[in-house]
Every structure is written in C-alpha cells, then in structure tokens.
Design a protein that fits this description.
It is found in: Cytoplasm, Cytoskeleton. The chain is of the alpha+beta class. The protein has a domain of 342 residues: Kinesin motor domain (Kinesin, 3-Layer(aba) Sandwich). Helices cover 53% and strands 14% of the residues. The protein is built from 15 helices and 17 strands. The strands form 4 sheets. Strands 1, 5, 6, 7, 8, 9, 12, 15, 16 and 17 form a 10-stranded mixed beta sheet that branches. Helix 1 crosses helix 4 and helix 7 packs antiparallel against helix 8. The radius of gyration is 52 Å and the shape is elongated. It starts with 6 loop residues before the first helix and ends with a helix. Bound molecules: adenosine-5'-triphosphate.
C-alpha cells in the first residue's frame, strides 16, 4: 500500500499532539493550583495556631505577673503576721509565767487549808466525839417524838372532824346565809308598773356586818323604822364567789360523814340566785383564773367533793349525778332521753316509799368521776330549763333546778357508821310510835324490827335511800355490806316575784303563780318545823315533797338568801329576809329539842 501522507493529515496530527500537550499542561496547572491552595490553607492554619500560641503566651505571662504580685502581697502580709505572732508569743509567755506562779501559790494555800481542816476534824473527833453521839441520840429522840406527834395529829384530826360535826349539829340543821348583790345596770331601768319614784334604784339594803343585814326604813318609802336581820353569815356586794363558797364548804365534810346536805338559793327574780349557785361568765376578762373566780357554789362544791373523795382509799366512793327541774308543780328529769336519744325533759313522779323514803320514779343517774364531768352533764341540759324574760330580769329562770349528787361509799368511816346506826334507831322509834311499818315488810321479814342489820339498810330519811332503794332489804345486809349512800342537793330556786312587778300575763302568769305557790309551800314547811308541829306539810307542793329528805330530820340545809339592795325591790327583799328569819327559828329550836331528849333519857 503506497505511503502517502498529506499535509492536512500531518497538520491534524500536530494539532492533536499540541492539544494533548496543552491538556496535560492544563492538568498540571490545575494540580499545581490545587497544591497551592492546600499550601495556602496550611499556611493560614499555621498562622492561626501561631496567633493562638502567642495569645496564650501573653495570657500566661499576665497570669505569671499576677501570681508574682500576689506572692509579693502574701509575703509582706506574712512578714507582718509573723511579727505580730512574735509579740503575742511574748505576751503569752509573760501570762503563763504569772499563771504558773499563781497556781503554785494556790496549791500551796489549798495544802495549808487541807492541813488545817484535818487538824480541826481530828481535834473535833477527839474533843466532841461524845457530844456528836449525844446529838445523834437527841436527833433520833426528836424523830421518834415527831412520829408520835404525827400520830397525835392524825388522832386530833379525827377528833376535829367529830367536833366539826358536833358543832355543825349544835349550830342546827338549817342554816341561813344572806348575800346582798351589788347595784347593777338593770336596777336603773325604771319599771313602768312598779310605780316607784325616780329613787327606785337607791340602795336601801346593807350588809352592815358579817351576820347582820340592815334595811334603811327612811329610804324604803314605807312607814317603818330601820330593820335588822341576823343570819349565820351575811355577804355584802363586794364579797367574791370564793368568799361565799368558803362558808358553805364545811357542809361537804358532813356529807361524807353520812349526812344528807341541801344548799338552796332563795330570792326574788334577778337577785343573784343563778349567779350564786352556777356562777356567771366574766364580761370582759376571759382568763382562766377569772372564769374560775366567777364559778358558783355548784361547780365549787363538786370540785371540793371530789377533792375530799381523793383523800379516801381509792375506789371507795362513787358519785352519780341527776338533774331535775320543778316546773308548774311537775317534776321533770332533765337527763332523760327521748326515743331518738336526744336530751328531753320527761315528767316523773315523786313517791314516798313504805319506809318513808322519798323516791323519784325512773330518774336518770349518770356516774361521774370528776367535777368537770359533773359540770358537763349539767351544762348539757341547762338549755332545757324553762326561762322567760320578765320586766325585772330578761333571762329569768321559771323553774326550780335541783342537781343531786348521790355518793355511795363502800367503806364508810366510823362516824358515818355511827350516824347510820343512830338514824336507824330513830326510824325504829318512829315506826314503833306511828305503827307505819310496812305490813309487806313485816310479812317478808318478821324479825325486821329487831334486826339491826335490817335497820341500817332501811334507814328512811338519812342517810339517803339509794336510787335503787329496796323497802324490804335482805337481813343479810349488814352495816358494812349495804351500800352507804348520802346525797348532796343543790337547788337554784325560781325567783319569787310580784305579779305587777313582773309584767307577765297568760301562760307566764300561770308559771309565776306556780312558782309563788311552791315557794310559799316551802315557807310553810320551814314554819311547821319551826313551831315543831306534828304535821309538816311536805306534800303541799312537788318541790317540798321532793326535798323532804333534805329539809328537817338529820339533813343539813343551807338557805342562801339572795337579796337585791335597791328600793325598787324592797317588798320582795323584806319577804325573803322574813323567810330566812322564820327558817332560822327552826335551827334555834333544834339543839333544845336534842337536850330535852337527852334529859328524858
Ligand atoms: N353578786 C353579784 N355580783 C355581780 N353580778 C351579779 C351578782 N348577783 C347577780 N348578778 C348579776 O345579776 C343578773 C341576774 O342574776 P341571776 O341570773 O343570778 O338572778 P336570779 O336570781 O337567778 O334570777 P331568776 O330567778 O329570774 O332566774 C346576772 O346578770 C348576774 O350576773
């Protein structure tokens, strides 16, 4: 094949070669540029690193400089401190030197002192040994005689108790105290129906001594001279609740000695009966001591009773409380509960058992262990008590409230047992005289009249019959076995009041008439006892029938007359003071009666 290469082909080949060269050159250029860029990047990196290192170096230099400064400051402070420590060290060494010398001196002195003490004690032992022995013997003798004195004191206390009861008996079984209350704001409110002049709030009744009340005749507006009334104790307007209770307190000792005790507040409406018996809430100061001070006879007597019981052997006495009201001549048991279990006063009957004891049928008794429990029981039912505002007193009680604490003793003291024997004997005499011994009892126990066991258990009037009293007890009951019961009756009577003064009408008028009738029945009973009439009309009202055990006989009755001091209530005050005087005649007669009995014996 002919080898013919034309120019175009050569040219094309050269172009191709050149293009190839160019391409490889361009690729090389690209490579070099890439390398250059990488080198630039590395350079920038190295420069950055160099800058950072430089900055760190500067920072480190600064830090180093700071440290050096701080070191310089610390060094100068340390130098200063060192010099101060040196100075303190110097001082301490001086003080220590003083202390060492003082301690040495002290040790020396205490050694000397000990030596002296030893000297003194050895000389005491040698010289006073006998005297000390004598003294020890003397002390032992004194201790013995102290024991003897204590024994005598115990016997004396027992004798004092007996004397106390003798004294109480000699004073009479009915005592009358009187409390004249202060003039109160409501005394200045003029009653439109009283007809009294502007001076009606003027004071006319004064407690002039511990036992005398004076009614200023001139000021009363009545044609009368000054009148004096004497009672066992008279309290003036300034006398506190405590002072009033102090005079009542001895009766509680008699209670545990086997006597029934009754304390009743008598007086016109608004004269302070509830204040005296229950107490009042303090108006401003509600501190505990103020509240205590305002408590009346009922809470204070409950507290004193439990105090006295706490001195007896544990569990020897139990106490039950019952609360009744006599309203419109009916007796209501305020502790009774209705079918729903709510407190609702229920009517009860008062009966005289065949042995002459007074019983209230189905009466509720609540066992109590402290004075506060007694007050809780009473407070829970006080709202049931009938009240009605009158012109004289906006919160007037319209019923007689009777709180009874029945005390059962498993181990009565000797005095109480003697009392029981005495009272049983009296019952036997009475039953022999009056032939009122229950035929039912005689049938059941023909030897009843002669059995002293039977007599103790069937004592009618005092000590009080038990709530579950049996008129025909088992002959096995003995003086020690039969439960020994006494009762404390605390009575807040409803206030006596003139119809005109009270300003009431309708049902309230009927209430007032019932109150006045029952109070007049009480006055009749006291009068009959004073005159020693053979018949005492206890049954003329439910009130006197209910209280029969506590009025007359051996029971101790204290009538607290509450009297308003103002002219406005002078008629009622004179009436109350008159009743008190009449009641006192009972006790005046009592000792004479006992002396006569003794003479006859
Ligand atoms: N001695 C007293 N000291 C201070 N306030 C008394 C005194 N006596 C009674 N009061 C006050 O007189 C007001 C009437 O007294 P209280 O309620 O005791 O009369 P009351 O005789 O029971 O009357 P009522 O028979 O109408 O129920 C009460 O506000 C009471 O606080």
């Amino acid at each position: 094949m002919p080898l013919f290469i034309n120019r175009d082909q050569i040219f094309a080949h050269q172009v191709h070669l050149l293009e190839h060269k160019l391409r490889s050159k361009e690729e090389r250029i690209l490579e070099l540029e890439t390398e250059n860029a990488i080198l630039h990047l590395r350079l920038a990196e190295c420069l950055g690193k160099l800058r950072r290192e430089r900055e760190e170096e500067i920072k480190a230099l600064n830090h180093h400089q700071h440290q050096r400064d701080a070191q310089n400051i610390t060094r100068s402070a340390l130098t200063k401190l060192l010099s101060e420590v040196q100075a303190v060290k110097q001082d301490l060494s001086e003080v220590f030197a003083v202390y060492v010398s003082f301690a040495t001196e002290l040790e020396e002195q205490s050694k000397q002192l000990m030596g002296k003490v030893e000297q003194v004690s050895s000389s005491l032992n040698s010289h006073c040994g006998n005297e000390i022995q004598n003294l020890q013997a003397h002390v032992a003798g004194l201790e013995r005689s102290l024991e003897e004195e204590k024994e005598k004191c115990r016997a004396e206390r027992q004798r004092r108790k007996e004397l106390h009861n003798t004294l109480v008996e000699l004073r009479g079984n009915i005592r009358v105290h009187c409390r004249v209350r202060p003039v109160l704001p409501f005394d200045h409110i003029r009653s439109s129906t009283s007809g009294s002049g502007p001076a009606s709030s003027e004071e006319v009744v004064y407690a002039i001594s511990d036992d005398t009340v004076m009614v200023n005749g001139l000021k009363t507006g009545m044609p009368m001279q000054d009148k004096m009334f004497e009672f066992e104790r008279v309290h003036g307007p300034a006398d506190s609740q405590d002072a009033v209770f102090e005079e009542v307190k001895p009766l509680l000792t008699s209670l545990l000695d086997g006597y029934n005790v009754c304390i009743m507040a008598y007086g016109q409406t608004g004269s302070g009966k509830t204040h005296t018996m229950m107490g009042s809430q303090p108006l401003h100061d509600h501190s505990r001591t103020q509240q205590e001070a305002q408590k009346g006879i009922i809470p204070k007597a409950a507290a004193e009773l439990f105090r006295l019981i706490s001195e007896k052997p544990a569990e020897s006495h139990t106490v039950e409380v019952s609360v009744m009201e006599v309203y419109n001549n009916e007796v209501f048991d305020l502790l009774a509960r209705d079918e729903q279990g709510n407190a609702a006063g229920q009517r009860r009957d008062v009966i005289t058992t065949s042995s002459g004891a007074i019983q209230v049928t189905s009466l509720t008794y609540v066992p109590v262990c402290s004075a506060s429990e007694v007050m809780q029981v009473i407070s829970s039912v006080l709202k049931l008590r009938a009240r009605c505002p009158t012109l004289v007193h906006t919160d007037s009680s319209r019923s007689h409230l009777i709180v009874t604490l029945t005390i059962s003793s498993k181990s009565p003291n000797a005095l109480a047992l003697a009392r029981r024997l005495q009272s049983a004997k009296k019952d036997m005499q009475r039953s022999n005289q009056k032939e009122w011994w229950s035929p039912r009892c005689r049938r059941a126990n023909p030897a009843a009249r002669h059995s002293s066991d039977e007599l103790f258990a069937s004592s009618a009037s005092s000590p009080c019959p038990s709530p579950s009293y049996s008129p025909c007890p088992s002959p096995r009951n003995s003086i020690t076995q039969a439960p020994f019961k006494t009762k404390l009756q605390l009575v807040d009577l409803a206030g006596s009041e003139c119809v005109g003064m009270s300003g009431v009408s309708g049902a309230a008028l009927w209430e007032l008439s019932c109150i006045n009738r029952s109070l007049s029945a009480l006055s009749d009973v006291l009068g009959a006892l004073a005159e020693q009439r053979p018949h005492v009309p206890y049954r003329n009202s439910k009130l006197t029938h209910l209280l029969q055990d506590s009025i007359g006989g051996d029971a101790k009755l204290l009538v607290m007359l509450c009297v308003s001091p103002t002219q406005r209530f002078i008629t009622e005050s004179l009436q109350s003071l008159g009743l008190g005087t009449r009641a006192r005649q009972v006790q005046k007669e009592q000792p004479r009666k006992k002396n006569n009995t003794l003479k006859v014996k």
